[in-house]
Write a structure and sequence with these properties.
Layout lengths: L2 H12 L5 H8 L3 H13 L18 E9 L4 H8 L5 E6 L6 E7 L2 H11 L6 E8 L28
Antiparallel strand pairs: 1-3, 1-4, 2-3
Helix pairs in contact: 2-3
């Protein structure tokens, strides 16, 4: 990636709907060059262009992190079930006392109570959960942007260096 790729990514990060012709004008490049660069960045998996949904616009104003302890040997089954739950927006395997970290979006505290008692604790292998209310999210993953030095380092897209 070069400085032109970085500049294109910055424009799209600010406004994913910005037309490539407008980006080209801003960068003093041909529209075809910018279109080709965008397509290459998408094809290489460097960027994804998508809409980011606002949960609050749909009445989902409660966000919680839930840390789950799973019975040994049942992690894969638990993950398979958790992946099917629409309210779960994030799932990761974690280290330490908990095995899985979830982020869940719900309407209110009564929905949270029902989710934990009637849905989450029915997941195969679920032993214990710890819930943390997130009253305000200051920065979310869709707002992350790589630091400048990341554009100067070769990447292998595998998550390791």
């Amino acid at each position: 990636m070069d400085e032109l790729d970085q500049a294109i990514i910055k424009f799209l990060h600010e406004d994913g709907r910005m037309p490539s012709a407008e980006i080209a004008r801003e960068l003093k490049q041909s529209p075809r060059t910018v279109q080709n660069r965008i397509q290459r960045l998408v094809d290489q998996g460097v960027i994804q262009i998508s809409a980011v949904v606002s949960p609050a616009a749909f009445g989902f104003g409660l966000v919680v992190d839930i840390f789950c302890e799973i019975e040994p040997g049942l992690l894969d089954q638990a993950i398979e079930e958790l992946l099917k739950i629409p309210n779960v927006t994030y799932i990761s395997i974690s280290t330490g006392e908990e095995d899985i970290n979830l982020q869940v979006i719900l309407r209110d505290s009564s929905e949270l109570h029902a989710f934990i008692t009637q849905r989450l604790h029915q997941v195969m292998g679920m032993q214990r959960t710890r819930t943390v209310l997130l009253p305000r999210i200051l920065k979310s993953s869709h707002q992350w942007f790589p630091p400048d030095e990341a554009f100067r380092q070769p990447t292998d897209n595998s998550g390791s260096r």
